[in-house]
Amino acid sequence: AAGIIGYSVGDVTITNVTNRNNITGSTSTGGIVGYAKTGMLTIVNGKNYGEISHHNSASEVDGVGGIVGYADKLTLRNCQNNGVIYVFNNKTLYTNIADPVKTEICVGGLVGKVKDGVYVEENSNKGNITINSNAHTLKVGGVIGSSLNNSKVVRDLKNYADLKVNSNNIYSALESNSEYAFMMIGGVVGDLQNNLTLCGNE
Prior knowledge:
single chain; 202 residues; ten-stranded parallel β-sheet; mainly beta; five-stranded parallel β-sheet; 4% helix; 20 strands
């Protein structure tokens, strides 16, 4: 679900775009783009003012972001999220080490999850993030939830909003001696495999 493009495939460029409508989804959800597959997604001068709500994840891996929910490859410049983000998941997705379901939810003020390559610079988040989820893995960042593998440029990112995360399932999994429960929370990025430059959480 998204304010502008729900699902894109291949190289896509979006410039000077604004969303002011509220969005509700149960798969990858973003203010501008929900899910971008394969090619490079490029967004320049994108703004979101709409409230984003993500309820009861329907996928094993979901991304939720003020601008982009999930992207294989992403270039993001001069974008801003002003909308609040709510993630609610009351399903018991992981209860013990014998449970085969390992659901991951990545939430960011701008980007939920990027898989293979990211060029993110000069972006900011001003929308508060509130999460109540039983997912076995939560990756939450004021700007980016998770950026993996070939992350290249991550700089000039600012978060001006609050993050609030509640997860009962993390504790029930730990009590069951599970090695699979994770919670990664950062003021700017939750999970990153690269360096941050000129970033701030205010």
